[in-house]
Every structure is written in structure tokens, then in C-alpha cells.
């Protein structure tokens, strides 16, 4: 977890395109309840099948989302980078992670546990809308495969 000040963290979030859709007040809300964490390259962030209840917003860096087939081979679902988020599925329904996520380069995340997400939504309801839109797109894509 970073020792950077809250002000620095707001500036860093604002530099990411996705977050420019949010107002200063909405960013302040996220910043006040999220935890910032940096992982080195090739680190395991989420493991398919494990429990978890946090959503990860990518502030900087790049990750690979993948599942294992029956032979344990990796099937890459998506590469995500700054402004994208992942982990929203288990954050919402408290079921095991649907995929694994590892860093392709050193990456910094703003992490929201379910309780933190609820606080965000109470204070800035538009954030729920943005997460739901991405969820809908991912369901659509998954159905097509
Ligand atoms: P969750 O199931 O909590 O943990 C793994 C995450 O990988 C999942 O939430 C999504 O954020 C992400 N994910 C799973 N499947 C896909 C997909 N087809 N495309 C993009 N991201 C995905």
C-alpha cells in the first residue's frame, strides 16, 4: 500500500482517461475509500476459482486476464490497461473469481472492496452505472465465445 498522500492519488487517478469521465467529487469519493497497491511485473493478482470481494481499477500498467483449460493451458480472454477495471464480478456476487489476472508489467491499482464500492455508489450513483455497463459488455462477449 502506498504512502502517497490523498492529493497525489487524486492527481494520479485523474491522469487516466476512464477516470476523466468522473467529476472531481466522484474521484474524491473513490479515492477516499480505495486502497492503492502496486504489483511488480509477472505478479499474480487474482486466481481463478479463489474467493475475493474486491474490484481493481488499473491506474497504470497492464494485465492479462485468462482461464485454464482442462489441460491447464492458458486461454487469454483480455489484456487490460490503465482506465480498465477487473474483479467486478466477484465483488458484486461474492462467488469465486471467474478468471486469473497477472501483471504484464509493474502495475498500480486502486482497490475497492464491496463495502467501499457500496459507499461509492451511495455518494456517487453514476459509478454503479459505469460498472454495470462494462459488466453487460463482458457478458455479451462471453456469450459469443
Ligand atoms: P472476477 O470474476 O471477480 O475475477 C476475474 C475477473 O476477470 C472478472 O471478475 C472480470 O473482471 C475479468 N474477466 C472475466 N472474464 C472476462 C472477459 N471475458 N473479458 C474481460 N474480463 C473478464
Gist of the model:
This protein is α+β, with helices and mostly antiparallel strands and about 140 residues long.
Structure explained in plain terms:
The protein is of the alpha+beta class and 145 residues long. It has helices at residues 6-14, 24-33, 88-93, 114-123, 126-144; strands at residues 35-39, 44-46, 54-60, 62-68, 74-81, 85-86, 100-103, 107-113. The strands form two sheets. It has a four-stranded antiparallel sheet with strand order 1-8-3-6. Helix 1 (6-14) packs across helix 2 (24-33) and helix 2 (24-33) runs antiparallel to helix 4. The protein is globular, with a radius of gyration of 15 Å. The chain binds adenosine-3',5'-cyclic-monophosphate (CMP). The site of adenosine-3',5'-cyclic-monophosphate has 16 residues, from strand 5, helix 3 and helix 5.
Strand order of the largest sheet: 1-8-3-6
Query: From N to C, what is the helix and strand string?
Result: HHEEEEEEHEEHH
Average predicted confidence as pLDDT:
90
Structural class, please?
A: alpha+beta
Q: Can you count the helices?
A: 5
Let me know the number of strands: 8
* Amino-to-carboxy terminus distance: 37 Å
Contiguous low-pLDDT stretches (5 residues minimum) are none
Taken as a percent bin, the fraction of beta residues is: 25-35%
- Rounded to an integer in angstroms, the radius of gyration calculated over CA atoms is 15 Å
Ions, cofactors and other bound molecules: adenosine-3',5'-cyclic-monophosphate
Please tell me what the overall shape is.
Answer: globular
Describe the largest sheet. 4 strands, antiparallel
Which range best describes the helical content: under 10%, 10-25%, 25-40%, 40-55%, 55-70% or over 70%? 25-40%
